Amino acid sequence: MMKKTVSTWAVLLPLAMVLATRSAGAAGPTPPADTVRLTVLHLNDVYQFQPTARNRGGLSRVATLKQQALKESPHVLTLLAGDTLSPSVESSAEVAGEALKGKQMIDAWNALGLDYATVGNHEFDFGDDVLRARLQQSRFPWLGANVMSVKSGQVFDGLKAWDLRDVGGVKVGIFGVVLPGTQTSSKPGKDTRITPFCEAAKRAVDELRAAGAQFVLGLTHLAVAQDRELARCVRVDLIIGGHDHDRVEETVAGTPILKLDEDAIDLGRVTLDLDAKTGAVKKLAWKVIPITAKTPDDAAFDEQMKPYAPLLATLAERVGRSPVALDARSAQSRLGETNLGSFLADAFREATGADVALVNGGAIRADRVLPAGTMTRRELYSLMPYRNELVVLEVTGATLRAALENGVSLSSVDGKPPGRFPQVSGLRFTYDLRKAPGARVTKVDVKGKPLDDAAKYRLATLSFVAQGNDGYAMLKDVPVLPASQGLPSPWDALSKAFSNGRPAPRAKPQGRITVTGAPQGGLRAPQSMK
To answer: What is the CATH number of domain 34-310?
Structure first.
């Protein structure tokens, strides 16, 4: 994968194609009569319709840019390459006593006038029933050629494998696929199967071609390596993807692959000049448009989103403060001890009275450094947007050791994203990356004493971990202690800590986790962790 800073990219395509060479902002003069110009606007991994904390993004601003594009060309398609229902601050918030679970994002996409979306792995976070409800609320098609119902043998109810649209006389086909890891990383139902994406794509493209498609676009939510595999296994004209949260611009097996970062901080604009008779691509140019405060809001969009104004006001409320900056970057939370990870674990141990606490690094989602100072409800929720319960388990020392082994069983040197990495409180441990997974933990101390495999310890953790997710199968059958029924939620526990300063976050990691055998230069974040 290669990041670039240029705003327009000329894609190397077959020899019969003319390369795009125009300036960054120009769509070019009106195409000749034998050419149809198609403008594709694309986004991926958009978890909020409001601008980010750094005042980037905002779907109201995107709506303004879409209206500008429509003034320049009658043929505009706006696409979302997956992940929008979860995880987000608003999706976790409650309105009239019920969690939104992505409803606000569907309202936003409807207001924007989205043309197509493919499902991402996080579309399944609330289960199949919620996803079906969101699909029904959408005024645009959702695609998912490799999301199947076991009972019917058909595509998941409410999804389409592909769609065909006439664009100025050219038949444009679009199909969607999602990464197979969704089966275990999210919560699809027992009747739902995420099938191999290449097989599903081949079937979808064959059906599109049979239906007369002249230009075929793959709308994907895959890791970039999987997009490359897709380009090699089936011939399509363009792949627009998501999931990685990184800008990607490549050509593999003659197929351009384009991807953006998250939360609409940039808008991708692809200008395609297609042969009016054959649909062949004559020219392709990609422009990345930064979404900043310089782009005005769209009044019509804002009017449709007015019902969410009270929620936004609630999220802006102060819950307390942090005396130090908090490192909520995803890579750091998944690769080693962070001051935020330790603070979360400390707060949960304080709230439960447990001996030790463990938080999986993948639960920390803000993916930025939060500055010292006032902490709002939005920032609180952004730290851990998933709805979890705080629970206490009584475990043996051997089980606690096994949990730590699981937590360090994956690392960047293994080439896999270690969302299971443990942030801890009440203990210190050392692990050696030169050893095989399952035998990496070389030392564990609990409250200054060596871990006793036969002793019992009260472990505070999130319900997600206690249920055996992220590889913590050793905890799945451990009964939750009755005292867990009266515990505060993770958000309430954190809110109290930010409010009264107990426990207080530290400026730096405290040396609770020591790694040996790391490669020279330290651990590096894997390319895809979302």
So the answer is: 3.60.21.10
